[in-house]
Amino acid sequence: MKLRVLIVDDDPSVLQPFAAAVEAAGDMQVVGQAATLAAGLHLLRNTRPDVLLVDLGLPDGDGTTLIAEAARSLPDCETMVVTVFGDEAHVLAAIEAGATGYLLKDASPAEIVEQLRVLKAGGSPISAVIARQMLRRSAAWSQAQRSATSVADGDATLSPREREVLQLCAKGYSYEEIAPMLAVSRHTVTTFVKRIYRKLQVHSRTEAVYEARRMGLLRD
Amino acid sequence: MVLLSLVLLLSSAIAQAGDAYARRFDQAEYQALALGAARVGPPPLPGSGWQAVALPDMQRPSRKPAVQPESERAMHWYLLHWTMPAGLAVDAPLAVYVPRAFSGPVQLWRLDTQGWGQVLDNGVWSLEQWNMPLLMSLPARALAPGETLTLALGVAADRGDDYSMSSVWVGPEAELRDRHALRWALQRTVPAASGLAMLVLGLLSFVVWLGRRHERGYLYFACAAIGWTLRNLHLFMIHPSGDLALSWFCWLSVASIWWLMLPTYLFAFRFDARRMPRFERCLAGFVGAGTVITMPDLLPVSRALYEPINLVAALAPTAVLTLLAVRGGSRELRLIVAALWACLAFGVHDALLTYVRISPETIYLLPYGGLLLVGSFLYAALRRFTGAVLQAESAGRVLTARLAERERELAVQHEQLRAVEREQALLLARQRLMRDMHDGVGSTLIAMLRLAESGGDGHAAMADLLRSAIEDLRLTIDSLEPLEHDLATLLATLRTRVGHRLEGAGLKLEWHMADMPPLPWLEPAQALQVLRLIQEAMTNVIKHARARTLRLSAHQAGDALEVCIEDDGCGFDARVAGAGQGLASMRQRAQALGAALLWNSTPERGTRVSLRLPLWRGSVPRTGHAS
């Protein structure tokens, strides 16, 4: 069973090498290419890909819309953001929308294929800056939960283990290095990271709901 | 004031309602009789020696008809004939009411078939009688309508003394009781009650003064209240009986009014901005002297001095205060002066009453004058207080307005400052960007341009240059990331960026990041310097070291954070030209950071470069070179 990949990017100089790299790998295939958000949404529903590669700045809208749609309708679909710099401002928003990693636009074909395989095997590495930002946010969550104003569910705060993983990520350690430090397998580390991602998404959603309620856009 | 008008209203109401059967005598028959050794004796029988007289009857020694025989003490008799009116119950209790009679004790006799019979001798109250309305019940006796009752009222007086008899009421006791009660209230109860209230206020004032010694007004009020109480002592106690005690009591009653007047005037002076300390001292001296020289048995003429002293002590300050009030005095002072003049008039009235110059049927007015004066003081104080409050309020408003204005100014200044800061930040960012472009992407682009222009087969070189340009841009972006001054996270971004190059060069990376405190000064500009410096060191390893392993570590070393880049390569000689250039650039960056750069290289045993970043800028570790 080949890995089915949908690529949505309005820049042909990104679209073509990415598609070529995926097609060149034997164990994956491109099921769709789109240059607009509308086309991307259409293809997402029709092709039901295993992996979605998406640019955030699409001509007719924000790529996070597509990421959120994928996270909602295709829970098994992994999403990666295609970005020039992989900077925190872009990637964190994408992760909050439901993405699980990012690919740099200048990645070599080998890197693209490698990253996709890593992603399917257990998630792409979390950048140190993002890990640090997540730690900061989780401190805010637990504070909100202590003051009982949060609408988040009970186990949405980070466990000590998850926190440890994030702290090591923020120091720049790779999953391979973290696993022996915590005396767990690499797979366990990726499980932790996936859970952390989910919690961040939950929080970004509940925070949005909370904010909406606070602003009177939603009723209780 | 309100009380006074209420009382007056009530009295007129009673005067209108009360005279169904009672009769007021404004005529009587008069006869004076010398009193011998016997203090008490019946009046002469009707018919002989009586002459008509109008009531009230005021007699001064000069106008006194000769009493025969010449005697030290005489009894002045007034004969009244009262006819039982039709319609009154025959056995209704009857009474005689005398509003005021001077100066000796009053006697009441009734003529029966057996002759005169004494009804009352007021000798017990002789000393208090001067200000005590008399109501005398007649012993029960049935009278037929039209039957006449003959009564004689006597008032004793020493030779040379004034005496007086007010008009007399005879009639049913029930009617006369109301009249008597009203007059009792006006003459005694109201002055006594208001005097007590004043005393309480005075004590309160005294306590306040104890806490606020500099505000003399409170003390003056307290003294005035005490003087007032002493003056009204006769309302609360009977006169002492001994001659000496009595003369001291009289002296106290007279002198106390001066002690009352002095603080009252001093208090009034406090309501004008102009101070008259000399006049105040004179007044105090005068009152003090008057008090001393009028003491009983000190001077033979002491009693004759009472009224002159009274007059001077009251008139002089009142006149001065009037002058002050007329010439630019405040409204409060004018009101007080008006009240003082009213009191003066009341005082004159009361003196005339005492010296039997006016009808004994009026009442002493000075107690009410006191109320008037206290009322004016209260009004003045209240106006002052209200004025002060208003002033404070307006001052508060002015302050608030000023504060608001200042806040607006501050806000404007703050905005200006922020604008300047923004401009400054923009300028700095632009300068930084220019420098970065110049150092990094700019020079790379020029190199690429030269390569493209040469037209040779330089695609691979161009790709390399492009990659390095992108990498440099990424370093710039990374330096701008929210690192929260964390060195490990900053180094981690470098790992992400150059990790693949290390792998490509077959180098194994060992990564060791200890727990470190944040570097407070690590802002984007410094972060970029650190990134470029470490990147340069790593590039050196990749290009020149021929190493298998690169170890990047960071930990706290005293008051600095130390970053070490170690390799197991060939090592290098710092004096070799190529390496020297790279090191010079690294050293420059370290200097810009205020950091120390140390390198230690042994040929064939690798190189160790360490960068010591001080935790606090200013505490710069020594730059050194070891080989």
Blueprint of the fold:
The complex is a heterodimer of chains A (220) and B (627).
Chain A lengths: L2 E6 L3 H13 L3 E7 L2 H11 L3 E5 L1 E2 L2 E2 H11 L4 E6 L4 H10 L3 E4 L4 H14 L5 H19 L13 H11 L4 H7 L4 H29 L6
Helix pairs in contact in A: 1-5, 2-3, 6-7, 7-9, 8-9
Chain B lengths: L1 H16 L5 E3 L1 E8 L16 E4 L2 E3 L13 E11 L10 E5 L2 E2 L3 E7 L2 E7 L12 E4 L10 E11 L4 E3 L2 E5 H39 L4 H16 L11 H27 L7 H17 L8 H25 L4 H24 L11 H89 L4 H21 L7 H18 L3 E6 L10 H22 L3 E9 L2 E8 L9 H17 L2 E6 L5 E8 L13
Parallel strand pairs in B: 14-15
Antiparallel strand pairs in B: 1-13, 2-3, 2-5, 4-12, 5-11, 6-10, 6-13, 7-12, 8-9, 8-11, 15-16, 16-18, 17-18
Helix pairs in contact in B: 1-2, 2-3, 3-4, 4-5, 4-6, 5-6, 6-7, 7-8, 8-9, 9-10, 9-11, 10-11, 11-12
Could you explain how this protein is built, in words?
The complex is a heterodimer of chains A (220) and B (627). With 220 residues, chain A is α/β, with parallel strands linked by helices. Chain A folds into two domains: 3-122, 3-Layer(aba) Sandwich (Rossmann fold), CATH 3.40.50; 128-214, Arc Repressor Mutant, subunit A. Chain A is built from nine helices and seven strands. In chain A, helix 6 runs antiparallel to helix 7 (160-170) and helix 8 packs across helix 9. The N and C termini of chain A lie far apart (46 Å). Chain B has 627 residues and is of the alpha+beta class. Chain B has twelve helices and 18 strands. Chain B has a six-stranded antiparallel β-sheet, with no helix packed on it. Chain B has a five-stranded mixed β-sheet with strand order 14-15-16-18-17. Chain B has a four-stranded antiparallel β-sheet with strand order 1-13-6-10, covered by helices on one side. In chain B, helix 2 (173-211) runs antiparallel to helix 3. Classes of the chains: A alpha/beta (220), B alpha+beta (627).
Keywords:
heterodimer, A: 220 residues, Rossmann fold, Arc Repressor Mutant, subunit A, two-stranded antiparallel ribbon, 7 strands, B: Jelly Rolls, Rhopdopsin 7-helix transmembrane proteins, Heat Shock Protein 90, 18 strands, rod-shaped, disordered C terminus
